Amino acid sequence: MSTTGRLLVSVADGHVADDVARACAAAGLQVEKVLTGVGVVVGTCDDPDVLRGVTGVAAVEPDREVHLDRDQPGPA
User: Following CA atoms 5, 50, 42, 44 in sequence, which dihedral angle do they give, to the nearest 10 degrees?
Assistant: First the structure.
């Protein structure tokens, strides 16, 4: 899978986000942000599949925009 879009890399339990970010950078991720509090590394990479093999990576997903419909009622 080849892409140049922004990716969200989830850090696996028991791993440190900054360490995973460094390992992902060595594997080709251009790190934009490390969200330590939520365990996510944000960046771009030509080959996201290679990131899935990095120790401490739980998941690699494309970054997507989410819109909330304010006209819809909330949960009851």
Answer: -30
